[in-house]
Design brief:
By secondary structure, this protein is mainly alpha-helical. Helix content is 56%, strand content 4%. It is built from 16 helices and three strands. A hairpin with a 6-residue loop joins strand 1 and strand 2. The chain is elongated and about 95 Å long.
Length: 335
Amino acid sequence: MEEPVDVCFVIQQRLKELGLEQRDLAVAAQVTESYISQLLTRKKAPPSTDRTDLYDKMNAFLKLPHGQLSAMVQEQQREELKKKVVDPPAPLFKNVRELIIRKCLAEKQKQVRDIFEKQAFGELERLITQKLVEVTKGVAKDELKNESWLRIVAKLRDRSYEEMRAIILEFLDTDVFNVSPEHCSAFLDPLIDSWDIDLESFAMEIVLNRRLASTQLLKFRFVEAHAALPPDQEPGFKEFLHNPAMSSDATGEELEFLKGLRFREKRPTPLYYYRQLQSLRDPLHFRETGGTTMHKRGEAAEVARHRKAESRKRAVRRWAKNRGNPRKNGKPKAS
């Protein structure tokens, strides 16, 4: 089997053909010349294609066929993945651990530290670090094309805009076993204000820097879920399907909706599915573009009719109750 063409070699050859230099490519890709140099000398692994616009920028600048660099990187990374050893690399977490503990709520820091120090990289430390890294990477990925956000973070870390973009590209490709102190100082430290964990339920709360993230508080919980029967095993749904009077005119889209309904303990009857189908078809239950006013009027009329009917029922019940208890009307009972 042929080895995939090395993307670094192709970029270097293309630069030579066009009479360009690495600094020109760095300007076009909006990263530092040092970052490009480390990529082309294979000191840094090429970032994943789904996490960056780097290859689109380089592809256009080097006048290569659309998507060529991305395709080459994907193939190269697939081949490298096959050669990797099964065991994960040993974590290098001394400085990272200190930052994680420092960001924990003060009253829990000692307890968390004691647990962390029992193992080199135990389950709790991996869980917490993984969640903090995931949250931070999510913010960084969302803001990668936001120049003003990048400049704010760069200023906070005393970096240039191009340096910050290069650090983000590398950070988005890291994993929990390879988070470096530089990643921590560039992202985890400024983005995460604090975190807390319930050591019984492992529910986590992460507070983000309001200047750098649109969402300030994130909560993660491990919830026990009851196993639901697959829709094709629900007896009521089977009976509904086998009853032509109920389901013969149901469309594929409607059946998919009914099939997606889930139940914990109660088992629905065929009539339940039939009524859900009618409810799904009732135009008063859904708003359509351009018909909002009409639907609002229809909803208001329906609510008014429902209230009127309920009012009549309550009046009848009061009348019936008072009829059987004359003292309610303030009149003494005849002897």
